[in-house]
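Notes to self after the call with IL:
- keep both proteins in one doc
- input above output, always
- annotate only the second one for now

Protein 1:
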Amino acid sequence: MQKKYTIIKLLTVTYFAIALFEVVAEYFVNRTLICVLKPIIPLVLIVIYYIESDKKNMLFIAALLLSLVTNILFIPNTSSCLFYGVLVFTIHRVIVLYLIFRFKKVGDFIPLIIATTPFLLIFFYLFMETAEIPQNSIYIIIFQNLLISLFAGIALSSYFMNDNKQNSVLLISALLFVMLQFVVFIEKYFW
């Protein structure tokens, strides 16, 4: 048991070190380091999950593998890679939402609708203000905006309706996904 704990701790430190170096590589636009480090991040998460979890959920592992593919597809700055990256990331989001709905029962839809609305407004405003969206990506990005808004709405409404550790972690995860979506919009379309 102690050996497993040590391995998990070492892998967690490795994960954050790789993430830090990847952020620095992104800042300095070092393509070589980005190409090497970006795909490793989901792989380390898969290894941590596989070692730590007693019950392995193959859908969760599939979501992390799709995250790896998305990371690879977002490295080049071409419209075709962006299209396929958004497509794979959409499948990733559908799986994540399925897992959330499977483990988290939504009883009242009114708080969910109220919590989802601001995110819909923000992402569709960004969508409408963005002039350079490739034609082949429009419908996928609209669907992507709906998915991230729904995910954030579930997390926010669950947190306010029942503040516990599970809902707090879900809210933090959703806010990080929202920030990621926002940053991708800014990076890919406004710069």
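Protein 2 (the one to annotate):
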Amino acid sequence: MRAHTFLLAALVLALLPASAQQPAPATPAPAWVQEFNSLPEASRKSYIDQFRRAEQLFAQKRTMECLFSLTELEKIYAGNPGLYNLRGACYIEIRNVEKALENFEKALKLDPSNLTIQFNLAEARYVSHDYAGAMKAFTELLPSFKDNPGMTSLLQFKRYICARKLDDQALARELESLYGPMDDTPYYYCTQAIIKFLGGDKDAAQEQLLSAIRIHGGTSAMQAFTDAMTEAGILPSPYGQTVPTAQPEKTGLEKNH
């Protein structure tokens, strides 16, 4: 899973002089933004600079340093959903999915309409093999990405894997026919590879994957599709072991869903 992070655009806007700001929106700013705006200007500027630094640490794979920075930032201001989203992404990197879910849930409570957080939470459920929860979350995200063909095909592919894991054969058959070999997505070849893998024909599955790589190799889409297969235990992990496919023990978070 590749969790996504986002900059504090709303908070940066709060630092602009009044003449440079856009007209006030019809609806009031979220409570957490209003709370942040009540901090002294110097504190706000320092906070944003430090948060950007934390994002850079994450991008540089300096995950533990990023986590430490976020702990320090939380002492200054604890209401920023971006902090918990980034912390969740860090926990995904070190494979502590329970902590990732906890932080993505907290971020979503602070900013319920943020698609980045919604997607990360869906991904965390998928990585934890909560396929029923992931299916629901990916399905709910589809309308928001109706104008983004790349994201739509990826969401549908993840729904297909969830359907196979949940043994929903009718939905799986429906999803198998969404895309063809001529579409600009690895979807067709990757679904065919899964069919062959799960049918025990590894050679045929490898042929389908090679076809996908020949056409889409080197693209972010191909990486995202193979990542989805690896997380579900269909492809071997690049670290030399297969991701376990058994359902994990309950984390205690399910009651919130």
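Annotation: The radius of gyration is 20 Å. The CA atoms of residues 16 and 22 lie 10 Å apart.
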